[in-house]
Amino acid sequence: MGRILVIHGPNLNLLGTREPEVYGSTTLAEIDAMLHELGQELGIEVESFQSNHEGAIIDAIHGARGRCDGILINPGAFTHYALAIRDAISAVGLPVVEVHLSNIHSREPFRHRSVIAPVAVGTIAGFGSDSYLLGLRALANRIRSQR
């Protein structure tokens, strides 16, 4: 059984009540439950982490090295400018899939650019909570193909 670290970035702790017209009404706890259930189906242990603090996210990424087989990350607003998170992902050498609930490319122009995408194996955006599930499946397939 492999292990995947799921990282939820800033403001995602408010899912379900934060701008439901953009992010949906599913809570973070519900997303985590869906991920854990899918992980069991895929034979993967899913560990979830959420922080509103860039340094804590970097520490979590560093902590995954040697302990996890991959990282599924929704960096939230850090997507667009957090070079330190990008560098941490690059440094640990784990496959990473970036996910977003909304389609960042159909929103405000400042959201169109991801500094994370160049160091991720892929990005899934615009499918609400299904983005996480699609991302977990894709990451699990990637990890299996590398073994």
Report low-confidence residues grouped into runs of 5 or more: none
Bin the helical content: 25-40%
Find the structural class using helix and strand composition.
Answer: alpha/beta
Average pLDDT number? 92
- Count of discrete structural domains: 1
Q: Outline, from the CA principal axes?
A: globular
What CATH calls the topology is Rossmann fold
Query: Briefly, what CATH class?
Result: Alpha Beta
EC number: 4.2.1.10
Keywords: Amino-acid biosynthesis, Aromatic amino acid biosynthesis, Lyase
Site (Transition state stabilizer): 18
Protein name: 3-dehydroquinate dehydratase
Question: Can you characterise this structure?
Answer:
This is 3-dehydroquinate dehydratase. Helix 4 links the parallel strand 3 (70-74) and strand 4 (96-100). A five-stranded parallel β-sheet has the order 2-1-3-4-5, with helices on both faces. Helix 2 (28-42) packs parallel to helix 5 (130-146) and helix 3 (54-64) runs parallel beside helix 4. The chain has five helices and five strands. The protein is an alpha/beta fold. It starts with a strand and ends with a helix. It has one domain (2-146): Dehydroquinase, class II (Rossmann fold), CATH 3.40.50. The longest helix is centred in the C-terminal third of the chain and has 17 residues, at 130-146. 39% of the residues lie in helices and 19% in strands.
